[in-house]
Amino acid sequence: MLAWIVTGVCLFYLLVNFLLLHWAGVKPLARFINDENHLNATLARLLKPRWPGSLGHSQVRDFLLQELLDLGFHTDRDEFVDGVAFTNVMGTINPEAPNFLLLCCHYDTENLTDVEGYLGATDGAVSCAILLNMAKTLGPYLREELRKRLDIGLALVFFDGHEPMPTDRKDSSALRGSKRFVRMETLPLESIELAIALNFIGAPAQAYMSHYDNTYMLHNRLAEIELDLRESGQLAPCHLLFQKLKDHDLPDDHYPFLDEGNLVY
Ligand SMILES: *[C@@H]1O[C@H](CO)[C@@H](O)[C@H](O)[C@H]1NC(C)=O
Ligand SMILES: *[C@@H]1O[C@H](CO)[C@@H](O)[C@H](O)[C@H]1NC(C)=O
């Protein structure tokens, strides 16, 4: 299972790398080295029960903040209390930029009483590890080239409070962190050019389809990049991940952004 996760996510972050560079209008200056050791080590730090109020939760929160700092990001934490304390974690490059690409995931797990030691691997952890691993892989570009482009910024947001608390209805995500982010405009909403929410990544049969008409072109661009990488032999063999198909969507941390009219993917 974990091996599949790693194969799948490596491709995914490679594709996001390309999207970011394409958006910034630059050609990659250097080959980016796939650092699977870092991905594995990062994931290992996240795979622990981390429901709000638990020790694992504060350890993971502190780990995310420290990693972002070490990777050269400006960091922000937004704490709020709703029964227990929640903390959204954000890392930015060019925090004053007028336009942002926002990539997000959630780091909390649900406090499941019927599953002891629930780790939430695909439900949050892998997505968070991908964001940090992408930041590591793109490090030289982010710290040198993107810093010179004050018109655009990158925001990595790790939402808290995604999962329902024991007092919430069980059949839905609570999305406390992302709703709060949008309500407080932790980043001005009008500066967010595109929000990409990563979740449920790592299943063996993983495939990505488009959920929104207005970002269908971007989705297809990623699908074409995957095909190019396959043709040039740069991908380990596996099934097609980005498919030029449309699918229905699931409520997730991008919903609050949609309500405000942001472009999401
Ligand atoms: C990362 O973890 C996966 C799954 O356990 C393993 O197959 C792979 O060899 C690991 N990669 C490295 C570089 O250690
Ligand atoms: C989490 O679950 C444990 C075990 O069921 C329980 O003792 C604890 O009160 C719960 N904590 C929260 C914050 O929900």
From TrEMBL:
Protein name per its UniProtKB record: glutaminyl-peptide cyclotransferase
Key word Isomerase present: no
Annotated catalysed reactions: N-terminal L-glutaminyl-[peptide] = N-terminal 5-oxo-L-prolyl-[peptide] + NH4(+)
Domain Peptidase M28: from-to ranges: 88-261
Species of the source: Drosophila persimilis
Annotated transmembrane regions: 6-24
Keywords: Acyltransferase, Membrane, Transferase, Transmembrane, Transmembrane helix
A Pfam family: Peptidase_M28
Keyword Transferase listed: yes
Family label: Belongs to the glutaminyl-peptide cyclotransferase family.
Gene3D superfamilies assigned to the protein according to its UniProt record, in alphabetical order: Zn peptidases
A single MF term (Gene Ontology): glutaminyl-peptide cyclotransferase activity
InterPro entries (UniProt xref): Peptidase_M28 (IPR007484), QC/QCL (IPR040234)
